[in-house]
Q: What sequence folds into this?
């Protein structure tokens, strides 16, 4: 098979654009990218999805994999399987390096791919705010791979602690520090607190009650984006579960053994989880004046990247100017990416038909965070929920969002089994070899 540099898709007959048919290239197959691709399936366009991973993942449940509550296959789905049966849909596993807006093409690790419309949905990566020590030694929590790495590390630390003769060293392996008081930090802390309560006493009886979980938050309260009442309820639930919440503590350094704060406090720990901020994934060929706060690309109300023709950005990678209700940009949440993807898909179809494009209007469907079994907080409009009601609502919303009936069934089955006795057999240390 040869290389067709004009398409970047190879010389297979099925991969050559049909006469007059336009191509939409979607970079990133996260929640937004997948929603966009599926929204174009009846548009008569060729759709090419480019992603460095061959799977779509469900970010809201990544922490469940890290705490050995769910299998990776419950929340990750092969992209090629998702596109089976769709005419003129193609997936290419590649890293995207840069855009050439004049030539209307992208440079990738497998060659050049031309586009008629380009949509950037590459999401965000962990923001370590330039702290190289923290970046080198702490664990991020953005992908399934991150979750698997953290799970292996947590279980490995428990095995080391089991045989460590020095009490001080043993405690270092038993201390887990989570940095970041947003939904991700709260959910990871809650999941690990349940692991401490139900798993450690059974699997490591000699280590019972020795595990300590610290949630370090630079702000004055948790869940800053939610109401103060929801924040207080979440903190109360976490402390009831044994989590040490430290508000107003800012991490300045972590050398792999000691976490240092700006107030002079330190915590000995062999495991730090960093969920303190995100930064949009970068791509070359973007003018400097188009890159806004935290690397997000500045877009107009139609999600078109400023100064680039037929280039859109959605989700965590975009920041929309001109929306009077969201002057600082829309929150980097899954529901924003999904709504933007649907609107961009409709606008591409409108442009193909010579119709006027419509601006993106965000509909806030609410915010929620789970803390543990029967414990969560949720806000929908003026309504605020806590406890079991919020947890059941959280469960329903996330199950509805999971792809495929089979996966919904397995996720629910795993959760039910976990809820009854917490004896899931996922606590395996699995390391890949070259």
A:
């Amino acid at each position: 098979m040869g290389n067709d540099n004009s398409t970047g898709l190879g010389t297979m007959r099925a991969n050559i654009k049909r006469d007059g048919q336009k191509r939409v290239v979607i970079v990133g197959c996260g929640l937004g990218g997948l929603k966009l691709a599926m929204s174009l399936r009846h548009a008569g366009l060729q759709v090419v999805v480019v992603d460095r991973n061959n799977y779509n993942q469900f970010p809201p449940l990544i922490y469940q994999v890290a705490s050995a509550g769910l299998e990776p296959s419950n929340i990750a789905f092969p992209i090629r399987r998702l596109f089976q049966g769709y005419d003129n849909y193609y997936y290419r596993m590649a890293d995207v390096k840069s855009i050439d807006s004049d030539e209307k093409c992208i440079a990738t690790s497998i060659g050049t791919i031309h586009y008629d419309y380009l949509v950037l949905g590459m999401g965000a990566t962990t923001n370590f705010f330039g702290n190289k020590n923290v970046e080198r030694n702490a664990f991020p929590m953005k992908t399934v791979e991150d979750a698997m790495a953290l799970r292996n590390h947590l279980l490995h630390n428990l095995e080391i602690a089991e045989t460590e003769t020095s009490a001080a060293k043993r405690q270092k392996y038993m201390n887990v520090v989570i940095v970041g008081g947003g939904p991700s930090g709260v959910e990871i802390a809650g999941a690990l607190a349940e692991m401490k309560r139900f798993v450690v006493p059974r699997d490591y009886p000699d280590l019972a009650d020795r595990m300590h979980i610290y949630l370090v938050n630079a702000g004055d309260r948790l869940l800053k984006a939610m109401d103060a009442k929801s924040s207080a309820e979440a903190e109360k639930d976490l402390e009831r579960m044994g989590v040490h919440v430290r508000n107003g503590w800012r991490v300045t350094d972590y050398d792999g053994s000691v976490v240092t704060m700006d107030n002079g406090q330190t915590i000995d720990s062999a495991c730090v989880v960093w969920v303190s901020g995100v930064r949009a994934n970068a791509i070359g060929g973007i003018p400097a004046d188009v890159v806004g706060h935290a690397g997000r690309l500045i877009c107009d109300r139609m999600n078109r990247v400023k100064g680039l023709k037929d280039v859109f950005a959605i989700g965590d990678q975009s920041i929309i100017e001109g929306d009077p209700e969201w002057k600082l940009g829309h929150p980097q949440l899954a529901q924003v990416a999904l709504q933007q993807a649907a609107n961009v898909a409709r606008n591409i179809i409108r442009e193909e038909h010579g119709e006027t494009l419509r601006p993106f209007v965000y509909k806030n469907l609410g915010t929620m965070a789970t803390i543990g079994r029967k414990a969560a907080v949720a806000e929908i409009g003026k309504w605020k929920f806590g406890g079991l009601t919020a947890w059941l609502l959280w469960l329903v919303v996330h199950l509805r969002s999971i792809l495929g009936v089979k996966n919904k069934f397995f996720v629910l089955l795993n959760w039910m089994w976990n809820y009854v006795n917490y004896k899931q057999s996922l606590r395996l240390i699995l390391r890949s070899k070259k």
User: Anything to note?
Assistant: The CA atoms of residues 49 and 91 lie 5 Å apart. The chain has two domains: 13-126+279-352, 132-276. The longest helix spans residues 183-203. The radius of gyration is 23 Å.
